[in-house]
Write a structure and sequence with these properties.
The chain contains two helices and 29 strands. The protein has helices spanning 5-16, 264-268; strands at 33-39, 44-49, 55-61, 65-70, 76-81, 87-92, 98-103, 108-116, 122-129, 134-141, 147-153, 159-164, 171-175, 197-202, 205-211, 219-226, 232-238, 248-251, 258-260, 276-279, 285-290, 295-300, 305-311, 315-321, 324-329, 333-338, 341-347, 350-352, 357-358. Strands 1, 2, 3, 28 and 29 form a five-stranded antiparallel sheet that branches. The protein has a four-stranded antiparallel sheet with strand order 4-5-6-7, with no helix packed on it. β10 and β11 form a beta hairpin.
Length: 359
């Protein structure tokens, strides 16, 4: 039976007054993290994971996902295809309903990452303008069904990760420096001339760029973490010969980038590849993972050097959980870590993809 005119007016009044609660992440099981995964049957899903490392929801994806962006206000997530993907799907995490499907404009592809504005009204996506060989940040109007409303220069080539600085709508972009084109698949076209950087963007303008020393020019900046005071941690992927002297760094606006050091054997053990990065809750430590090396490393930010490491086969996703870290592997394992010591383990039948995204 349809509600009476009086009841409709009453409900409308409550909604207008803000009395009827809007959906929150609690309505989706109160997850703390998002992660893409593959099932043993070859299916792909987006999962919500709790602080206790239980899977709170498991929602289907049309293809392999990479990272996700969590809406800051409501239980809605954008799952991005693995680069060079051309789709991103917006999901209502309460029931798995598709809210919208984003398709990259002609001549563009996504890089697997995105971020919301502080009020959740705009989604920012990293993209490749592959004919021009230039990085772009796409803008999507969330309130109008994720309609494309424009794009900005990313400040470099090959933008991968993108984050919003705390308490602002200033964006930081990891421009990896690598030019690719769909006609060549994932082939890297400009290694000899690549110039990675961190670019800070305010209202569409690149307001600051941080570059690496000349001898680190082939260290592609790929993944980011942001501390409460705006310090940016970054993980790199080496494209040169031999082994780099560092794969991890931090940067604070107005200063030069600071590289974090490990001895040669520890750096070599990462196989030139950082897959994810996270600051500790106190901000004094930064954890990085290498699925290729099967290693999780922990660095002291102030000292600028490695303090601990642990072997963890095919580890990639890492995020903070309270005073600890959480990590996931391609073999389906999840761990809670105090430093690098495992204090809780859980095994799933899902093959976790690269990132553990904090909600």
């Amino acid at each position: 039976m349809a509600p009476s005119k009086g009841r409709r007016k009453f409900l409308g009044g409550l909604l207008a007054a803000g009395v009827i609660p809007r959906p929150t992440w609690a309505d989706a099981g109160s997850p703390s993290f998002l992660s893409a995964a593959a099932g043993l049957d070859g299916s792909y899903v987006l999962c919500g994971i709790g602080d206790d490392l239980t899977v709170r929801f498991e929602l289907p994806l049309p293809a392999r996902g990479h990272a996700a962006a969590a809406h800051p206000m409501r239980p809605e997530a954008v799952a991005f295809a693995r680069r060079p993907g051309t789709f991103a799907v917006v999901i209502d995490c309460r029931n798995g309903a598709q809210v919208a499907m984003l398709t990259s404009p002609e001549g563009r592809h996504f890089y697997g990452h995105g971020a919301f504005s502080s009020d959740g009204s705009v989604l920012f996506t990293t993209e490749n303008d592959y004919e021009a060989g230039a990085g772009r940040v796409g803008l999507w109007d969330v309130r109008n069904g994720y309609r494309r409303i424009g794009e900005w220069d990313s400040g470099g080539i090959g933008p991968h990760d993108i984050k919003r600085l705390p308490g602002s709508d200033v964006l930081v972009v990891a421009n990896g420096g690598i030019d690719t084109h769909p006609d060549s698949g994932r082939t890297k076209l400009n290694i000899a001339t690549m110039q990675p950087n961190l670019a800070y963007i305010d209202s569409g303008q690149v307001v600051e760029v941080a570059q690496l020393p000349a001898n680190m020019r082939k260290n592609s900046i790929r993944h980011l973490a942001v501390r409460g005071d705006g310090m940016v941690g970054f993980g790199m992927q080496w494209q040169g010969d031999g082994h780099p002297s560092a794969l991890v760094g931090v940067h604070q606006r107005g200063t030069t980038a600071k590289l974090l050091w490990a001895d040669e054997a520890e750096t070599r053990g990462m196989d030139g590849y950082i897959g994810s990065i996270a600051f500790s809750s106190a901000g004094d430590r930064v954890a990085v993972t290498s699925p290729r090396g099967g290693v999780l490393q922990l660095y002291d930010v102030d000292a600028g050097q490695l303090v601990a490491a642990t072997q963890m086969e095919d580890v990639c996703g890492v995020a903070t959980v309270g005073r600890h870290f959480a990590a996931t592997t391609g073999g389906g394992e999840m761990r809670r870590l105090q430093g690098v010591t495992s204090i809780h383990k859980a095994q799933t039948d899902l093959m976790w993809d690269n990132h553990l995204v904090k909600i």
